[in-house]
Design goal:
GO molecular function, one term: nucleic acid binding
Number of helices: 20
Family: Belongs to the mTERF family.
Order of helices and strands: HHHHHHHHHHHHHHHHHHHH
Oligomer: single chain
Distance between the termini: 73 Å
Structural class: mainly alpha
Protein name: Transcription termination factor MTERF6, chloroplastic/mitochondrial
Helix content: 55-70%
InterPro entries: MTERF (IPR003690), MTERF_sf (IPR038538)
Organism: Senna tora
Shape: elongated
Length: about 350
């Protein structure tokens, strides 16, 4: 009788999925991923599906969400799903933040509010992360709820503490700025990148500045990204200390595309603007600005008026302030025209 019931439910769920546009290959994949799915009553699956639609998840996105986590259809609605959704709503400030988090990581709903979410919130609050930032962080990277506090998050905190970042809430600031950094392996990614930065001459304090201001650098592959960018800067003629100044002043210089960002900007700086490459040492954020929309446009305006200025004076302000600074408000329309033509 039990076997017959299981077979019946499996057949019932097969039709449930087919009615919602799943092909047989996807259905079989979900059954392999979650073997208990065959024993789920269609009524429960339908109820959970309808609830997910009711909280704002679009019908067209539901198949993708369910394919990632078929278990979502067998969870107790009022025991598991609703409490988690209601709790997540208190963390978000925008209507679609919770549904976006569920779409990114549907397994979020399979975790317990009391056993996983509350301890996670307490862990981050103890680090001095404000509640408003805390909610944004978890909804941006909902996978955080799946990490073990003892064996994953605490180790990450200890690693950053070993870099001298265990004061003034700096580790919390890193997590808020880049919640995804907690997902990387210490031994395979974070430690090699920090060691590389030290090897090119960054002091402990400079490494801390980079980690706090742009932690994404620590999450990039040394061999595939950091070393090639460093080699390119050396090829351009920068010495070791100058490269350190560039990295501290604008950390993304080590992860920006050479072909699509660094090379075209340096070529324009030298060949078109007629400037010396050393000028970017005084203003590393030169590489932050868009070539077409900012650097080229402002250079043309200044050249037309025969005006000279430093890179920082040229770029470290918005468009209106740029024209105010040089008394060129009449050129504001010209700039817009040049921008639209480029």
């Amino acid at each position: 009788m039990e076997v017959t019931s299981s077979v019946y439910n499996g057949s019932s769920m097969m039709w449930f999925f087919r009615d919602r546009g799943f092909d047989d290959k996807s259905i079989q994949g979900m059954f392999r991923k979650c073997r208990r799915l065959e024993g789920v009553h269609q009524e429960r699956a339908s109820e959970n599906w309808a609830y997910l639609r009711s909280i704002g998840i679009q019908e067209r996105k539901l198949p993708s969400i369910v394919s990632k986590c078929p278990k979502i259809l067998m969870l107790g609605l009022n025991e598991k799903i609703v409490p988690m959704v209601e709790c997540l709503k208190t963390l978000g400030s925008k209507p679609n933040e919770v549904t976006s988090a569920i779409a990114k990581f549907p397994h979020l709903l399979s975790h317990s509010v009391e056993e996983k979410l509350c301890p996670l919130l307490a862990f981050f609050q103890a680090m001095g992360i404000p509640d408003k930032r805390l909610g944004k962080m978890i909804l941006l990277n909902p996978r955080l709820i799946s990490y073990s506090i003892e064996t994953k998050l605490t180790e990450i905190v200890n690693f950053f503490a070993s870099l001298g970042l265990d004061k003034d809430g700096m580790i919390g600031k890193i997590f808020v700025r880049n919640p995804f950094i907690m997902g990387y392996s210490i031994d395979k990614r974070l430690r090699p990148t920090s060691q590389f930065l030290k090897s090119i001459g960054l002091t402990e304090l400079e490494l801390q500045v980079v980690a706090v201001n742009f932690p994404e650098v620590l999450s990039r592959d040394v061999n595939k990204v950091l070393e090639p960018n460093y080699a390119y800067l050396k090829k351009c003629g920068f010495n070791d200390r100058q490269i350190v100044s560039l990295v501290v002043g604008f950390p993304p210089i080590l992860i920006k595309s050479i072909q699509n960002s660094l090379e075209p900007k340096i070529k324009f700086l030298l060949d078109v603007m007629g400037r010396q490459i050393d000028e970017v040492i005084d203003y590393p954020c030169f590489f932050r600005h868009g070539l077409k929309r900012e650097i080229e446009v402002r250079h043309r305006v200044l050249k037309k008026r025969n005006l000279n200025c430093s890179l920082s004076e040229m770029l470290e302000c918005n468009k209106k302030k740029f024209f105010l600074k040089f008394g060129l408000l009449d050129g504001y329309a010209l700039s817009n025209q040049v921008s639209s033509q480029s």
